[in-house]
Amino acid sequence: MKFVITGATGYVGRNLVPLLQESGADLLLAGRDKAKISHVFPGCTCCDYTELAEKAKGYTVLLHLAVLNNTSSEPLETFLQVNVDGALEIATLARDAGIGTFVNFSSTHALDQANTSPYAISKRNAATALAKVEGMRIVNLFLPYVYNPDFSDRLTFLAKLPSPLARIGFCAIASLKPTVSVHRIAEVVRSLDSRDSPALAEPAIVSDGQSGNPVYGLIMRSLDLAFALIVTVLFWWLLLIIWALVKTGSKGPGIFAQERVGRNGKPFTCYKFRTMQTGTAHLGTHEVSASSVTRLGALLRKLKLDELPQIINIFRNEISLIGPRPCLPVQRELVEARRRLGVLALKPGISGLAQVNGVDMSDPDKLANLDARYLALQSLLLDLKIIIATALGSGNGDRVAK
Question: What is the pLDDT of residues 111-157, one digit of tens each?
Fold first, then answer.
């Protein structure tokens, strides 16, 4: 492994360099202040940017961490000079040195199109500009809140607690917003220099996820069960009325049961109020004719009331309030895309990030990538935003064919 690293004296670089050294990587640290780099990392090979094209020959990956960060109060023009023009300058030098992969690091703040801070604007512009650089592979990696598990320089109050309390405290913090350990970043970086590099979603977000967070799991499971119990205890009468209307409104059962792909690819039976004519082919909703939807079914889908029987699936722990919408086993392209990006590790949801953004199963790759974004950014705050957006009318059911 042969890496060139710019911006090594920043927080991520200071924590990443030792991990890469421990794994036996050959490192070249580059920057405008060579003396500062040598002081922070004595014994490491260093160079300034005027030497980069020559010194970097034989290296395979450049990690571009040099950045004007969002804590700076500089004007937008300065951000553009550093984060866009500077990135293009380094990418050109790296290409001239024969480096095959340029990795541009950014914060997940830049993914939010509503974020108009100079930092976010400049990093979005940088990604667009770098995509036009020919002759090398460009990888944009987006990071949420970065921490070191020893809590030596961030969240330092946790280091003063007994280990079990520190673990619980961190899990509580991490349940609220996405985080990523420097060890996870090092793992992904090392994989980029491998022929067996894992598939990356677009955009490529590196995070710890919530799969190992017991606090997040407990809170979300509690919310799921609370929702299912409230519907059962307080709105059983509504369920009966809807069932009777569906049953008498058109030929067929009141509740529709269909096999779907669940967590880890395991099939399960999903329950919904029937909204289509009996005999409609078991296809993705976008492949079904609009004429197949009953008049009452159209109203139920618009109000999302057809989803209420999925409280059965919630009690069975087969589905959650929020998660990727479960697809049919016959939608093999989507299943494979989700498997490739790790999305099948998630429990399916009644509503999800893709649904409230109007993305349905007619575009498997786009949907799988948005599901992968949810996997990376999953948190209580994001789930709450999706719940509110769903309640306010976003994602009015999967679109049917015309």
Answer: 999 999 999 999 999 999 999 999 999 999 999 999 999 998 899 99
* Mean pLDDT score, 218-235: 97
Which residues, other chains included, contact 161 with Cβ-Cβ below 8 Å and sequence gap of 6+?
Answer: 169
Q: From start to end of 32-99, where are the E strands? A: 45-48, 61-64
Interatomic CA distance for residues 339 and 401, integer angstroms: 26
pLDDT at 197: 66
Is the predicted pLDDT of residue 399 greater than 60, yes or no?
Answer: no
Please report the domains of the chain, with CATH numbers, ordered by start residue. Answer: 2-208 (3.40.50.720), 215-391 (no CATH)
Rounded Cα distance between 83 and 127, Å, is 10
The pLDDT value recorded for residue 395 is 67
Q: How confident is the model at residue 393 (pLDDT cuts 50, 70, 90)?
A: confident
Q: What Rg, from alpha-carbon coordinates, does the chain have? A: 25
Of the candidates 33, 30, 34, 8, the one whose C-alpha atom is nearest the C-alpha of residue 19 is 8
Pairing of strands 267-273, 255-261: antiparallel
Number of other CB atoms surrounding residue 76 within 10 Å: 13
- Per-residue burial over 231-270, b = 16 or more CB atoms within 10 Å of its CB, e = otherwise: beeeeeeebeebbeebeeebebebbbeeebbbbeeeebeb
d(CA 332, CA 246): 31
For the range 48-53, what are the long-range contacts, defined as Cβ-Cβ under 8 Å and sequence gap of 24 or more? 49/89, 49/90, 49/93, 52/4, 52/90, 52/93, 52/94, 52/97, 53/93, 53/96, 53/97
Say if residues 349 and 322 touch (Cβ distance below 8 Å): yes
Q: What share of the chain is helix, strand, coil (3-state, %, to 5)?
A: 50, 15, 35
Q: What are 45-54's contacts with CB under 8 Å, separation 24+?
A: 49/89, 49/90, 49/93, 52/4, 52/90, 52/93, 52/94, 52/97, 53/93, 53/96, 53/97, 54/97
Average pLDDT over residues 43-57: 93
